[in-house]
Each structure stands twice: as C-alpha cells, then as structure tokens.
Predict the structure.
Amino acid sequence: MIDGTTVLETVNLGKRYRRKWGLQDCTLTIPKGRVAALVGPNGAGKSTLLRMAAGLDQPSVGTLRVLGESPTSGSGNLKERVGYLDQERPLYKSFRVAEMLRFGAKNNPNWNMEVAKEHLAQLDIPLRSRIGNLSGGQQAQVALTLCLAKEPELLLLDEPAAALDPVAREELLRILMRQVADCDSSVLLSTHSLGDVAAICDYVVVLAHSRVVLSNDTEYVLESHRILSAVHDGDLLPPPGVTVINSQSSARGQSLLVRIELPIDETRWRVERPSLEEIVLAYLREGAPGAKEGHIRDRDGSGE
C-alpha cells in the first residue's frame, strides 16, 4: 500500500502491444528518497514502465500508483510533481536554449529558473544557442535541465547518460546525487551501465524478458549473495540454506552465484563476495525461467 515512504508501487502490472507483452507481472515498490536503477537488456520493459509511470502509456492489466496517485486518473497535480526524461529527448530544435527555458517556466508552476541557468552555465551551454545546433550530449543535458528545474518529487529518467561522454556522465551522476540531497527528490532511472548503478544507485530493479527478477536495496543485495567455487567434484552439492541463481562449470571445477539465508560454514567451497555487476549479470543470464527460483525477497518477506 502506498504511503509517505514510497514513490512508486506496481501490482501485477502489464502492458501489451498487440500480441507482445512489453511488461508483464510487474510487482515492485520503490522507497522514497532513493536513486533506483532499472537494469536490463533492450526490450526488457524499462522504457515501458517509465512511460506508464509518467502517464504517457496506460497499463493493460494490473495497478500502478505514483506518489499515491494513478498516472492515468487525470486528476491531481501529478504532472507537476514528476519530471520525465524520454530516451528520444523531445526538444524544439528551432528554439534557442533560453526559449526552451521560458517554455518550461510557462508550463511548470514550480519552475526554478536559477537552477536551470546555473546547471547550463556549469556545462558551458550558451543560452543563445539553438537546440538543433547542439551536440547530442548537450541536447540531453538541456532536456535533463528542464526536468531538474521543475524540482520534482520524482525524476523518471530513461537512459539519461546514453549520449554523454565520460566527463559529462560523471557530472550527471553528481547532479543527481545533489538533486536528491537538496530537493528531497527520488530518482528512477534506466541504464545499461552497471558502473553507474554501483556509483550512485542505492536500489536496483532488474528486468529480464519483460518481468522483474530482482528488486531490493543494493546494500542488501550485496550482503545476501555469494560466489561459491570448488574444484571439480561430481558429488559436491550446494551447501544447505542457499538458492542457486547461476551455475557455471568447466573442466577445472564449478562456480555458483547463490542467494544466502545464513552464513555459509562449508570448507569444501571457497566463498567470495560478488560485485553488484556479477549479481545482476547472473540474474540476467538466468532470465525469466530462473527468476522464480533465484528471486530475491524483500526484508519483510514479500516477493516481487
């Protein structure tokens, strides 16, 4: 149930495009004040979920609540409370940057022009430049600026760093962290970069084959998974109290990425802490068939 501690909740949410599901059986909760990452391959449903959360697409089945409201209800002031950055970066290419800012101010009651100008000044993007003459990375930064200047409670960002060089990418991550700290915003962003997830995200949602296969605090995910490795032994079984997420074998032995319930006291296995990237990749390798076995549960015991 949505309350003041959550910004997004879905229950059995699905979106169907004719015969194909863009998202299916999606049940998750995003806590308030988090930088949450949506991770998964192309076609996994990341953009579909963000568009529905922004009220641009309607669910085919299930329920969706954003900041306690339904994005498709047509009531309330949800559009003022949510900032959405589309992957296509829709901007008026003939406008100058300053005209885009004035357009934003006219359409957003909570607009902060000082924030917008300061952000663009730090990026050396002149206000007199035409949008169409800017590089792809600069256009992405202008589009992000329009979202930030709304000072929204929730930022929905679809691949915000996709067109950015490494320096601009680092600046973007720093800005998002400052937005959360200064404006008490929450962020839900889709990304292909697991490095970005590890750098700033404190909550991770993994989508594979249009379904949620992992959803929880990054710290808890790291603490509840281990890599077990052993020299080849055909009779060696996984220790009790673990759930195997992914198994890889070679002539030299086997390696398991597992979810643990209790500390492992088993001398025949070498136990290591995996990185967040290793955990996410293990869930993606297994995909939908392995999600039910390896699916991590929230600390209150409820599954996604």
